[in-house]
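Q: Here's a chain of 494 amino acids. Please give me its 3D structure as tokens.
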Amino acid sequence: MNWHHRVLCRKLDNLVSGRIKRLMVCMPPRHGKSEVVSRRFPAYILGRQPSAQIIACSYSADLASRMNRDVQRIMDSPEYARIFPETRLNAANVRTAAGGALRNSDIFEIPNHGGVYRSAGVGGGVTGMGATYAILDDPIKNREEADSATYRDKLWEWYCSTFLTRLEKGGCVLLVMTRWHEDDIAGRLLKLAATDPAADQWDVVRFPAEAEGASVDDPRQPGDPLWPNKYDSEALARIQAGIGSYQWASLYQQRPAPASGGIWKTRWWRFWCERGEVRPPVRIRLDDGETVECPVRQIPDVFDDEIQSWDMTFKGLETSKGGKPDYVVGGSLARSGADCYLRDVTRGQWEFFETIQQLVRFSEAWPETRAKLVEDKANGPAIISTLSHKIPGLIAVEPDGDKAARARAVAHMIEAGNVYLPHPDLAPWVWGFIHECSTFPSGENDDQVDMLSQALRRWSTSTGASYDLSALNDPVAGLLPAASSGFSFGAWRR
């Protein structure tokens, strides 16, 4: 058990004693939040208050049932019986003919006391009973859900219309989660609390993986790891390098919006020059006045793969932000090992037939680009149908998530220095490209961002450089078994 678990236990004890009614806990993945909150805490509540009614929900019914079974195993243990001798479970797995206490993987009752524990997945039914304690643990499964406005709205509607309506007068709400998005349910609740004095006011426990400054609940110095015995500074640095700063800021620092703004940082870019050339670093002035020097290297002689990537939005279709019409954009890219080189870009506000002509010309200019990725939306399918017998290698690509989500998915490649742009002396259009990337997703256009994201996603998945971020939010994976985890009810004992 680490110091932050003891702090968390004290907060949870304040919830049981009635000193607080709304508690929000934001912690990084695999730092013990679910072990304490979703496994041990419900058992502790029922030990202290055997008549308590608990509703516990998580992102899936299967996970909620697993938590339910874990709570039962804890309550069946000899240690628990010694600490809370008045609270026990029915040995049967089903309701007896005599009307004994119910016990299964969805619900169990406390014999002779009336206490009950009910588990369900987000969106599932929890009607039919009230709750003196409503626990919501990790309502978001992965980045895809977090980036979906539709899912966030659906979760919010379920929370307000179903989950919260089960709460008894004077009941307590506990939200524990890893932050994924600035507009996730934690973000909405905190915004509501700040703007409406009549709304629920939350006691917030936020533990970033690396300390950002000492607070009442966090005595660490800036940069200190949260749980050094499990994830020391070196281990956290490897994680950050692997997932990139955007994912790091949300998942591990519990600060969903990076402090420095956009998804792709200007200082991350690298540049290439022609073979045999030696050029100094490219100097770029940032919005805050700072000047950075971005390295330059010679482009390789041989590539592992060469492709085109096309964003097929057409003139007359306005951007979602109501700005200027989006552009059609095509790019020629090459990969050597883990490094990706953007070699050329063609871009214009073209009608259908002009777009066809431009794709033909670009393919003739770059004949070695065998695969031509075309986003499978708008008129992309029509382009493929028209040119499939004239130009080989046209591949329809189904967009995965929204544009921002796709950009975040490849941000780690750019941040790691694996993406090279042509030197501005060779391609003056690079400055406009950098500007669009630095202002995304709030800028006027995003066509070049989408073109590059599409290409990098293909190589990220084919080279083994991609990361399954859903596993990072698994509240079970990586935790020790309950019997040997080092957590004890003694943390709550007085």
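Q: Can you summarize the key feature?
A: The CA atoms of residues 309 and 455 lie 6 Å apart.
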